[in-house]
Amino acid sequence: LMLEANLGIRISDILKLRLSDIIRDGDRYRLSITEQKTGKARVFTVPFALYQFIRCYCLDNGIAATDIIFPITERAVQKQLRIVCDYLGIPGVSTHSFRKYYATEIYKNNNYDIALVQKLLQHGSPAVTQRYIGIEPERVEKAILGHTNLL
Asked: What does pTM read for this prediction?
């Protein structure tokens, strides 16, 4: 889930991930995948700290570079997440919530650049991305309220 929240890739793609899929490219690390859901190719930078976290996880757990890092099913992840969220009293959380979190944070931290988020998520249109992150109505409401304060 941490990888989903920090990379924006779907849980189905994370569960196929191998350490060897992350390639050193000069002074950065790069991940190249074909998204299981869409069949689209996606290449992006993996922040060094995240790569180090994944690498240490693999070393600590005896996972070889060519082994699948998380040999579990999506259903098993959902089940454990549900147990934790029920315990904490947090309703309505799924694995996909972490991808949406990623999208929303990128949007807010990059001057509300919807085109950037659209590109990162590989959505077909900005309208799809706006509905996906669900933040546009909040901005509209804030703009309206801010305007009425000028009176």
From this structure: 0.78
Q: Which two tokens stand for residue 107?
A: 């949007």
> What are residue 72's phi and psi, to 5 degrees?
-135, 170
Q: What are the Cα distances from residue 35, in Å, to 17, 29, 38, 63, 65?
A: 11, 19, 6, 23, 20
Tens digit of pLDDT per residue, the chain (151 long)? 889 999 989 999 999 999 999 999 999 999 988 888 888 888 889 999 999 999 999 999 999 999 999 999 999 999 999 999 999 999 999 998 998 999 999 998 998 899 999 988 888 888 888 888 876 666 666 777 777 655 5
> CA 53 to CA 103: how far, in whole Å?
21
Give me the residue label for tokens 């944070």.
105
